[in-house]
User: Fold this.
Amino acid sequence: MELLIIRHGQSEADLLEVHEGRADFPLTDLGKAQARKMAAAVAKEYPPEIILSSTLKRASGTARILQEAIGCEIRFYDDLREFNNGVLAGMSRKEAAVKYPLPKGGRPVHIPIQDGESALDLRYRAERILREIVHDYRDYQRVAIVSHGGLISNLIKAFLNLPVGDFAFPTGDTGIHLLEIRDDIRVVRFMNRQGHLSYE
Assistant:
């Protein structure tokens, strides 16, 4: 079984210098163009049999563009949404730094931001949804997952059985990771591939 994990394209929040997280901004025109390039590359090189997507607009819009290129079924999961950043969602970074400054030494992994989830909560959610996908879609050869940077990083950590903190796996706009479960072996085929963005 292969897991093709894809981050959404550029969203409007990227241009506004705000905390995004659960704030539901759509793709920009550039984000849509990025998604079309990603979809063309995926359709040619590693088309999935099914697409699973976050319900937030920037991811669902990316997933729908991919679906148009592939023609396969798409299903939406709330559990594939980005980190729940509570009161920070949609707030400018300058305002957030004043109203909700990070504690000295950073926020402990078990303590959430107000109205949000903790880093530990996010990791548990990623662990749970990964196990659900691997179990529920075990008869598929390749499953695409369209999600967000923070959740994707935690999906990879869950896949590799890494601890909650100390590791991060950044993903650029429409970056692609290909992971494989082969018998009892977990294989990383590639990470954060973005070569498609250089295509004309």
Summary: The chain has one domain: 2-198.
